[in-house]
Amino acid sequence: MEWLVSRSLNLGYLALLLVASPWILWNRLVHGKYREGFREKVLGDLRLSRRMDASPESGRPLWLHAVSVGEVLLLKPLIADWIRFYPQVPLVLTVTTQTGRGVAEKMIRDLGAKQVEVRYFPLDFSWSVNRAIRQLQPLAIVLVELEIWPNLVLAARQQAVPVMVINGRLSERSFRGYHRFVGFFRWLLKGISCVGAQTKVYASRFEKLGVPASRVVVTGNLKYDRLETCRQNPRTIALREYFGFHSKDIVWIAGSTQHPEEALAIDAWLSLRKEFPCLQLMIVPRHRERFEEVAQLILAKGCQPVRRTSATPYKPQHNELPPVRLLDTLGELGAAWGLADLAFVGGSLTNRGGQNMIEPAGYGAALFFGPNTQNFKQTVDLLLANQAASMVSSGANLAPFVRTLLENPQQRILQGQAAQQLVLDQSGAVEKTLELITTHSKILKTGSAGGLGNLGAGMIHDHAA
Protein backbone atom coordinates (compact mmCIF):
# COMPACT_ATOMS: atom_id res chain seq x y z
CA MET A 1 0.00 0.00 0.00
CA GLU A 2 2.72 2.48 0.98
CA TRP A 3 4.78 1.62 -2.10
CA LEU A 4 1.77 2.23 -4.38
CA VAL A 5 0.88 5.54 -2.70
CA SER A 6 4.47 6.77 -2.85
CA ARG A 7 4.90 5.96 -6.55
CA SER A 8 1.53 7.49 -7.40
CA LEU A 9 2.49 10.67 -5.59
CA ASN A 10 5.79 10.83 -7.47
CA LEU A 11 3.96 10.60 -10.79
CA GLY A 12 1.49 13.27 -9.70
CA TYR A 13 4.24 15.63 -8.59
CA LEU A 14 6.15 15.14 -11.86
CA ALA A 15 3.00 15.91 -13.83
CA LEU A 16 2.44 19.10 -11.82
CA LEU A 17 6.05 20.16 -12.36
CA LEU A 18 5.68 19.60 -16.09
CA VAL A 19 2.53 21.73 -16.24
CA ALA A 20 4.08 24.47 -14.07
CA SER A 21 7.47 24.47 -15.81
CA PRO A 22 6.77 27.54 -18.04
CA TRP A 23 5.72 29.54 -14.98
CA ILE A 24 8.75 28.31 -13.01
CA LEU A 25 11.11 29.17 -15.88
CA TRP A 26 9.55 32.63 -16.21
CA ASN A 27 10.03 33.40 -12.52
CA ARG A 28 13.55 32.01 -12.62
CA LEU A 29 14.56 34.28 -15.50
CA VAL A 30 12.59 37.42 -14.62
CA HIS A 31 12.46 37.43 -10.80
CA GLY A 32 15.48 35.29 -9.96
CA LYS A 33 13.42 32.68 -8.12
CA TYR A 34 14.13 28.93 -7.94
CA ARG A 35 17.83 29.34 -8.78
CA GLU A 36 19.16 27.97 -5.51
CA GLY A 37 19.10 24.67 -3.71
CA PHE A 38 18.76 22.10 -6.51
CA ARG A 39 20.65 19.38 -4.59
CA GLU A 40 18.67 20.02 -1.42
CA LYS A 41 15.24 20.35 -3.04
CA VAL A 42 15.40 17.69 -5.75
CA LEU A 43 18.03 15.26 -4.44
CA GLY A 44 17.36 15.64 -0.72
CA ASP A 45 21.02 16.43 0.06
CA LEU A 46 20.71 17.99 3.53
CA ARG A 47 23.97 16.74 5.01
CA LEU A 48 25.41 18.79 7.85
CA SER A 49 28.50 20.91 7.31
CA ARG A 50 31.94 19.49 8.00
CA ARG A 51 32.21 21.82 10.98
CA MET A 52 29.11 20.28 12.51
CA ASP A 53 30.12 16.73 11.66
CA ALA A 54 33.59 17.28 13.09
CA SER A 55 32.30 18.41 16.47
CA PRO A 56 32.72 15.62 19.02
CA GLU A 57 29.68 16.91 20.92
CA SER A 58 27.34 16.81 17.93
CA GLY A 59 24.65 14.18 18.06
CA ARG A 60 21.62 13.53 15.91
CA PRO A 61 19.89 16.77 14.92
CA LEU A 62 16.33 17.94 15.40
CA TRP A 63 14.72 18.87 12.06
CA LEU A 64 12.45 21.92 12.11
CA HIS A 65 10.51 22.99 9.01
CA ALA A 66 8.91 26.40 8.44
CA VAL A 67 7.28 27.46 5.18
CA SER A 68 6.74 31.22 5.33
CA VAL A 69 8.89 34.06 6.62
CA GLY A 70 6.34 34.52 9.39
CA GLU A 71 6.74 30.91 10.51
CA VAL A 72 10.53 31.29 10.50
CA LEU A 73 10.32 34.35 12.74
CA LEU A 74 7.86 32.85 15.20
CA LEU A 75 10.36 30.01 15.80
CA LYS A 76 12.97 32.41 17.16
CA PRO A 77 12.09 32.07 20.89
CA LEU A 78 11.68 28.30 20.51
CA ILE A 79 15.11 27.96 18.91
CA ALA A 80 16.63 30.24 21.56
CA ASP A 81 15.28 27.97 24.30
CA TRP A 82 16.38 24.84 22.44
CA ILE A 83 20.02 25.92 22.22
CA ARG A 84 19.89 26.93 25.88
CA PHE A 85 18.56 23.57 27.09
CA TYR A 86 20.28 21.39 24.47
CA PRO A 87 23.57 23.09 23.52
CA GLN A 88 25.04 19.80 22.23
CA VAL A 89 22.15 18.91 19.91
CA PRO A 90 22.35 20.21 16.32
CA LEU A 91 19.25 21.71 14.77
CA VAL A 92 18.42 21.82 11.06
CA LEU A 93 15.91 24.48 9.99
CA THR A 94 14.45 23.96 6.51
CA VAL A 95 12.61 26.56 4.43
CA THR A 96 10.98 26.60 1.02
CA THR A 97 11.89 29.98 -0.48
CA GLN A 98 14.96 32.09 -1.11
CA THR A 99 13.44 34.89 0.95
CA GLY A 100 12.73 32.53 3.83
CA ARG A 101 16.29 31.25 3.77
CA GLY A 102 17.73 34.75 3.95
CA VAL A 103 15.53 35.64 6.92
CA ALA A 104 16.31 32.34 8.65
CA GLU A 105 20.07 32.73 8.24
CA LYS A 106 19.96 36.27 9.61
CA MET A 107 17.87 35.13 12.57
CA ILE A 108 20.35 32.35 13.36
CA ARG A 109 23.26 34.81 13.17
CA ASP A 110 21.43 37.18 15.52
CA LEU A 111 20.93 34.32 17.98
CA GLY A 112 24.58 33.30 17.73
CA ALA A 113 23.36 29.73 17.25
CA LYS A 114 26.37 27.90 15.82
CA GLN A 115 24.63 24.53 16.22
CA VAL A 116 21.81 25.54 13.84
CA GLU A 117 22.07 25.17 10.06
CA VAL A 118 19.58 26.30 7.41
CA ARG A 119 18.68 24.21 4.39
CA TYR A 120 16.03 24.11 1.68
CA PHE A 121 13.20 21.65 2.30
CA PRO A 122 13.31 18.69 -0.10
CA LEU A 123 10.46 18.34 -2.56
CA ASP A 124 8.07 15.56 -1.57
CA PHE A 125 9.50 12.97 -3.96
CA SER A 126 10.19 9.63 -2.30
CA TRP A 127 13.89 9.67 -3.25
CA SER A 128 14.39 13.21 -1.90
CA VAL A 129 12.78 12.75 1.50
CA ASN A 130 14.24 9.27 2.02
CA ARG A 131 17.75 10.50 1.32
CA ALA A 132 17.31 13.53 3.58
CA ILE A 133 16.15 11.38 6.49
CA ARG A 134 18.95 8.82 5.96
CA GLN A 135 21.56 11.58 5.93
CA LEU A 136 20.30 13.51 8.95
CA GLN A 137 18.92 10.61 11.03
CA PRO A 138 16.96 13.24 12.96
CA LEU A 139 15.66 12.87 16.49
CA ALA A 140 12.33 14.07 15.10
CA ILE A 141 10.84 16.03 12.20
CA VAL A 142 8.90 19.04 13.46
CA LEU A 143 6.48 20.72 11.03
CA VAL A 144 5.14 24.20 11.77
CA GLU A 145 1.37 24.88 11.56
CA LEU A 146 0.29 22.53 8.74
CA GLU A 147 2.79 21.00 6.33
CA ILE A 148 1.73 17.39 5.93
CA TRP A 149 3.70 16.00 2.99
CA PRO A 150 2.68 12.36 2.39
CA ASN A 151 5.99 10.96 1.16
CA LEU A 152 7.83 12.63 4.02
CA VAL A 153 5.43 11.13 6.58
CA LEU A 154 5.70 7.69 4.95
CA ALA A 155 9.51 7.81 4.79
CA ALA A 156 9.73 8.90 8.41
CA ARG A 157 7.41 6.05 9.42
CA GLN A 158 9.56 3.52 7.56
CA GLN A 159 12.73 4.83 9.24
CA ALA A 160 11.11 5.08 12.71
CA VAL A 161 11.55 8.87 12.95
CA PRO A 162 8.83 10.73 14.90
CA VAL A 163 6.91 13.40 12.97
CA MET A 164 5.08 16.11 14.86
CA VAL A 165 3.14 19.27 14.10
CA ILE A 166 3.63 22.32 16.32
CA ASN A 167 1.59 25.52 16.44
CA GLY A 168 -0.97 23.47 14.52
CA ARG A 169 -3.55 25.49 12.64
CA LEU A 170 -6.30 24.06 10.45
CA SER A 171 -8.66 26.71 9.09
CA GLU A 172 -12.25 25.82 8.29
CA ARG A 173 -11.54 26.15 4.58
CA SER A 174 -8.49 23.86 4.74
CA PHE A 175 -10.37 21.38 6.88
CA ARG A 176 -13.20 21.13 4.34
CA GLY A 177 -10.67 20.53 1.57
CA TYR A 178 -8.80 17.82 3.45
CA HIS A 179 -12.02 16.19 4.66
CA ARG A 180 -12.97 15.34 1.08
CA PHE A 181 -10.17 12.77 1.25
CA VAL A 182 -10.70 11.85 4.88
CA GLY A 183 -10.08 8.14 4.27
CA PHE A 184 -6.60 8.82 2.90
CA PHE A 185 -5.73 11.29 5.66
CA ARG A 186 -6.96 8.97 8.41
CA TRP A 187 -4.54 6.35 7.08
CA LEU A 188 -1.68 8.84 6.64
CA LEU A 189 -2.02 10.81 9.85
CA LYS A 190 -1.83 7.71 12.01
CA GLY A 191 1.90 8.14 11.44
CA ILE A 192 1.95 11.53 13.18
CA SER A 193 3.50 11.26 16.66
CA CYS A 194 1.76 14.32 18.07
CA VAL A 195 0.08 17.62 17.22
CA GLY A 196 0.43 20.73 19.34
CA ALA A 197 -2.63 22.76 18.24
CA GLN A 198 -3.16 26.48 18.74
CA THR A 199 -6.77 26.13 19.93
CA LYS A 200 -9.37 23.54 20.92
CA VAL A 201 -11.16 24.09 17.61
CA TYR A 202 -8.02 23.30 15.61
CA ALA A 203 -7.31 20.30 17.84
CA SER A 204 -10.79 18.92 17.13
CA ARG A 205 -10.25 19.27 13.38
CA PHE A 206 -6.96 17.39 13.49
CA GLU A 207 -8.72 14.60 15.38
CA LYS A 208 -11.52 14.46 12.81
CA LEU A 209 -8.92 14.10 10.06
CA GLY A 210 -7.48 11.03 11.73
CA VAL A 211 -4.84 12.03 14.29
CA PRO A 212 -5.58 9.92 17.39
CA ALA A 213 -7.04 12.10 20.16
CA SER A 214 -4.38 10.89 22.58
CA ARG A 215 -1.73 12.53 20.38
CA VAL A 216 -3.37 15.97 20.12
CA VAL A 217 -2.84 18.64 22.77
CA VAL A 218 -3.54 22.38 22.89
CA THR A 219 -0.29 24.29 23.39
CA GLY A 220 -1.43 27.78 22.40
CA ASN A 221 -0.15 30.04 19.66
CA LEU A 222 3.59 30.73 19.40
CA LYS A 223 2.76 34.07 17.80
CA TYR A 224 1.39 35.31 21.12
CA ASP A 225 4.42 34.25 23.10
CA ARG A 226 7.35 36.48 23.97
CA LEU A 227 6.30 39.17 21.57
CA GLU A 228 7.97 42.52 21.88
CA THR A 229 5.68 44.86 23.80
CA CYS A 230 8.12 47.67 24.59
CA ARG A 231 8.20 50.50 22.07
CA GLN A 232 11.62 51.57 23.32
CA ASN A 233 13.40 48.48 22.05
CA PRO A 234 16.57 49.20 20.00
CA ARG A 235 15.18 48.07 16.63
CA THR A 236 12.07 50.24 16.89
CA ILE A 237 14.11 53.22 18.07
CA ALA A 238 16.43 52.83 15.08
CA LEU A 239 13.48 52.86 12.68
CA ARG A 240 11.95 55.89 14.39
CA GLU A 241 15.20 57.82 14.00
CA TYR A 242 15.75 56.68 10.41
CA PHE A 243 12.27 57.71 9.24
CA GLY A 244 12.33 61.00 11.16
CA PHE A 245 9.24 60.53 13.32
CA HIS A 246 8.63 63.01 16.15
CA SER A 247 6.85 62.59 19.45
CA LYS A 248 3.88 64.69 18.26
CA ASP A 249 3.33 62.49 15.19
CA ILE A 250 0.43 60.06 14.99
CA VAL A 251 1.81 57.14 12.97
CA TRP A 252 -0.48 55.01 10.83
CA ILE A 253 1.14 51.83 9.50
CA ALA A 254 -0.49 49.79 6.75
CA GLY A 255 1.43 46.51 7.01
CA SER A 256 1.54 43.27 4.99
CA THR A 257 -0.42 45.01 2.24
CA GLN A 258 -1.39 43.75 -1.18
CA HIS A 259 -2.74 45.49 -4.27
CA PRO A 260 -4.89 47.66 -4.06
CA GLU A 261 -4.58 48.23 -0.30
CA GLU A 262 -1.63 50.60 -0.67
CA ALA A 263 -3.62 52.93 -2.93
CA LEU A 264 -6.61 52.80 -0.59
CA ALA A 265 -4.44 53.72 2.39
CA ILE A 266 -2.69 56.58 0.56
CA ASP A 267 -6.00 58.03 -0.67
CA ALA A 268 -7.46 57.86 2.84
CA TRP A 269 -4.36 59.52 4.32
CA LEU A 270 -4.33 62.31 1.73
CA SER A 271 -7.98 63.07 2.49
CA LEU A 272 -7.18 63.45 6.21
CA ARG A 273 -3.72 65.01 6.40
CA LYS A 274 -4.78 68.66 6.02
CA GLU A 275 -7.22 68.32 8.91
CA PHE A 276 -4.77 66.19 10.91
CA PRO A 277 -1.26 67.38 9.94
CA CYS A 278 0.41 65.18 12.57
CA LEU A 279 -0.87 62.01 10.89
CA GLN A 280 2.00 60.15 9.19
CA LEU A 281 1.69 57.09 6.94
CA MET A 282 4.01 54.12 6.56
CA ILE A 283 3.37 51.30 4.08
CA VAL A 284 4.88 47.82 4.31
CA PRO A 285 4.06 45.64 1.27
CA ARG A 286 3.69 41.91 1.89
CA HIS A 287 6.04 40.85 -0.92
CA ARG A 288 9.42 42.30 -1.77
CA GLU A 289 8.71 41.91 -5.51
CA ARG A 290 6.28 44.84 -5.13
CA PHE A 291 8.57 47.29 -3.33
CA GLU A 292 9.45 49.21 -6.49
CA GLU A 293 5.86 49.08 -7.74
CA VAL A 294 4.61 50.64 -4.49
CA ALA A 295 7.34 53.31 -4.59
CA GLN A 296 6.13 54.30 -8.06
CA LEU A 297 2.52 54.29 -6.83
CA ILE A 298 3.45 56.74 -4.05
CA LEU A 299 5.01 59.06 -6.64
CA ALA A 300 1.97 58.75 -8.88
CA LYS A 301 -0.22 59.85 -5.97
CA GLY A 302 1.80 63.07 -5.71
CA CYS A 303 3.76 61.96 -2.64
CA GLN A 304 7.41 61.37 -1.83
CA PRO A 305 8.43 57.77 -1.09
CA VAL A 306 10.78 57.70 1.90
CA ARG A 307 12.43 54.31 1.52
CA ARG A 308 14.18 52.31 4.21
CA THR A 309 16.77 51.27 1.63
CA SER A 310 17.78 54.87 0.94
CA ALA A 311 21.42 55.66 1.61
CA THR A 312 20.71 58.27 4.30
CA PRO A 313 18.04 58.73 7.01
CA TYR A 314 15.09 60.94 6.16
CA LYS A 315 15.16 64.63 7.08
CA PRO A 316 12.07 66.74 6.29
CA GLN A 317 12.57 69.59 3.82
CA HIS A 318 10.47 72.68 3.24
CA ASN A 319 8.03 72.63 0.32
CA GLU A 320 8.59 68.92 -0.35
CA LEU A 321 5.96 66.47 -1.50
CA PRO A 322 3.95 64.79 1.27
CA PRO A 323 6.21 61.98 2.60
CA VAL A 324 4.98 58.39 2.71
CA ARG A 325 7.36 56.07 4.51
CA LEU A 326 8.01 52.81 2.66
CA LEU A 327 9.54 49.91 4.59
CA ASP A 328 11.11 48.08 1.66
CA THR A 329 13.09 45.52 3.64
CA LEU A 330 12.37 42.06 5.01
CA GLY A 331 12.19 41.10 8.67
CA GLU A 332 11.66 44.60 10.09
CA LEU A 333 7.87 44.79 10.17
CA GLY A 334 7.79 43.31 13.68
CA ALA A 335 9.89 46.20 15.00
CA ALA A 336 8.07 48.77 12.84
CA TRP A 337 4.72 47.96 14.45
CA GLY A 338 6.21 49.51 17.59
CA LEU A 339 5.96 52.90 15.83
CA ALA A 340 2.26 52.55 15.10
CA ASP A 341 -0.50 54.43 16.86
CA LEU A 342 -2.89 53.10 14.21
CA ALA A 343 -2.26 49.67 12.68
CA PHE A 344 -4.02 48.41 9.56
CA VAL A 345 -3.23 44.76 8.78
CA GLY A 346 -3.34 44.05 5.06
CA GLY A 347 -4.48 41.07 3.05
CA SER A 348 -7.90 41.75 4.57
CA LEU A 349 -9.40 43.97 1.86
CA THR A 350 -8.37 41.39 -0.76
CA ASN A 351 -9.00 37.66 -1.07
CA ARG A 352 -5.79 36.81 0.81
CA GLY A 353 -7.65 36.03 4.04
CA GLY A 354 -5.68 38.33 6.34
CA GLN A 355 -2.21 38.38 7.86
CA ASN A 356 -0.70 38.15 11.33
CA MET A 357 -2.22 40.83 13.56
CA ILE A 358 -0.68 39.74 16.86
CA GLU A 359 2.51 41.82 16.61
CA PRO A 360 0.78 45.23 16.44
CA ALA A 361 -1.58 44.06 19.18
CA GLY A 362 1.42 43.36 21.40
CA TYR A 363 2.57 46.98 21.11
CA GLY A 364 -0.88 48.27 22.05
CA ALA A 365 -1.62 49.89 18.68
CA ALA A 366 -5.21 50.65 17.68
CA LEU A 367 -5.65 47.64 15.43
CA PHE A 368 -8.03 47.34 12.46
CA PHE A 369 -8.44 45.26 9.32
CA GLY A 370 -10.86 44.48 6.51
CA PRO A 371 -13.57 41.81 6.47
CA ASN A 372 -11.58 39.06 4.72
CA THR A 373 -9.67 37.49 7.61
CA GLN A 374 -10.84 33.89 7.30
CA ASN A 375 -7.31 32.50 7.61
CA PHE A 376 -7.05 34.00 11.10
CA LYS A 377 -10.62 33.51 12.24
CA GLN A 378 -9.80 32.34 15.78
CA THR A 379 -7.47 35.28 16.40
CA VAL A 380 -9.92 37.79 14.91
CA ASP A 381 -12.83 36.43 16.94
CA LEU A 382 -10.75 36.68 20.11
CA LEU A 383 -9.66 40.25 19.36
CA LEU A 384 -13.16 41.44 18.47
CA ALA A 385 -14.76 39.72 21.47
CA ASN A 386 -12.37 41.59 23.76
CA GLN A 387 -12.86 44.95 22.00
CA ALA A 388 -9.19 44.81 21.09
CA ALA A 389 -9.59 45.43 17.34
CA SER A 390 -12.00 46.82 14.77
CA MET A 391 -13.18 45.66 11.36
CA VAL A 392 -13.51 48.06 8.44
CA SER A 393 -16.11 46.90 5.96
CA SER A 394 -14.42 48.21 2.79
CA GLY A 395 -11.62 50.35 1.42
CA ALA A 396 -14.03 53.26 1.02
CA ASN A 397 -14.55 53.23 4.79
CA LEU A 398 -10.87 53.52 5.69
CA ALA A 399 -10.85 57.32 5.85
CA PRO A 400 -14.07 57.64 7.93
CA PHE A 401 -12.85 54.98 10.34
CA VAL A 402 -9.41 56.55 10.79
CA ARG A 403 -11.10 59.92 11.30
CA THR A 404 -13.11 58.39 14.15
CA LEU A 405 -9.92 57.17 15.83
CA LEU A 406 -8.25 60.56 15.39
CA GLU A 407 -11.23 62.41 16.83
CA ASN A 408 -11.47 60.01 19.79
CA PRO A 409 -7.95 59.47 21.15
CA GLN A 410 -9.26 57.82 24.31
CA GLN A 411 -11.05 55.18 22.21
CA ARG A 412 -7.91 54.21 20.34
CA ILE A 413 -5.83 54.15 23.54
CA LEU A 414 -8.31 51.86 25.31
CA GLN A 415 -8.53 49.56 22.29
CA GLY A 416 -4.74 49.35 22.10
CA GLN A 417 -4.47 48.57 25.81
CA ALA A 418 -7.06 45.79 25.46
CA ALA A 419 -5.09 44.28 22.56
CA GLN A 420 -1.82 44.34 24.46
CA GLN A 421 -3.35 42.78 27.56
CA LEU A 422 -4.88 40.03 25.46
CA VAL A 423 -1.46 39.14 24.06
CA LEU A 424 0.07 39.09 27.53
CA ASP A 425 -2.70 36.79 28.78
CA GLN A 426 -1.99 34.22 26.02
CA SER A 427 1.68 33.60 26.87
CA GLY A 428 3.22 30.20 27.63
CA ALA A 429 3.12 28.48 24.23
CA VAL A 430 6.92 28.26 23.83
CA GLU A 431 7.39 26.27 27.03
CA LYS A 432 4.48 23.93 26.24
CA THR A 433 5.74 23.36 22.69
CA LEU A 434 9.32 22.69 23.79
CA GLU A 435 8.00 20.21 26.33
CA LEU A 436 5.97 18.48 23.61
CA ILE A 437 8.99 18.18 21.29
CA THR A 438 11.20 16.84 24.04
CA THR A 439 8.63 14.29 25.15
CA HIS A 440 7.91 12.87 21.71
CA SER A 441 11.36 13.00 20.12
CA LYS A 442 14.02 10.36 20.59
CA ILE A 443 15.81 12.47 23.17
CA LEU A 444 13.77 11.00 26.00
CA LYS A 445 12.92 7.73 24.29
CA THR A 446 16.50 6.66 23.74
CA GLY A 447 18.52 9.01 25.91
CA SER A 448 20.48 9.93 22.78
CA ALA A 449 22.22 13.21 22.02
CA GLY A 450 24.78 12.98 24.75
CA GLY A 451 22.50 11.79 27.53
CA LEU A 452 20.17 14.74 27.38
CA GLY A 453 17.18 12.66 28.35
CA ASN A 454 17.71 13.55 31.99
CA LEU A 455 18.04 17.22 31.16
CA GLY A 456 14.79 17.12 29.17
CA ALA A 457 13.02 15.33 31.98
CA GLY A 458 14.30 17.89 34.44
CA MET A 459 13.06 20.75 32.26
CA ILE A 460 9.61 19.17 32.01
CA HIS A 461 9.53 18.60 35.77
CA ASP A 462 10.49 22.21 36.42
CA HIS A 463 7.86 23.48 34.00
CA ALA A 464 5.17 21.30 35.51
CA ALA A 465 6.05 22.53 38.97
From TrEMBL:
Name of the protein in its database record: 3-deoxy-D-manno-octulosonic acid transferase
Pathway assigned in UniProt: Bacterial outer membrane biogenesis; LPS core biosynthesis
Catalysed reactions, semicolon-separated: lipid IVA (E. coli) + CMP-3-deoxy-beta-D-manno-octulosonate = alpha-Kdo-(2->6)-lipid IVA (E. coli) + CMP + H(+)
Segments traversing the membrane: 12-30
Gene3D superfamilies recorded: 3-Deoxy-D-manno-octulosonic-acid transferase, N-terminal domain, Glycogen Phosphorylase B
A Pfam short name: Glycos_transf_N
Gene: waaA
GO biological process: lipid A biosynthetic process; lipopolysaccharide core region biosynthetic process
Biological source species: Planctopirus ephydatiae
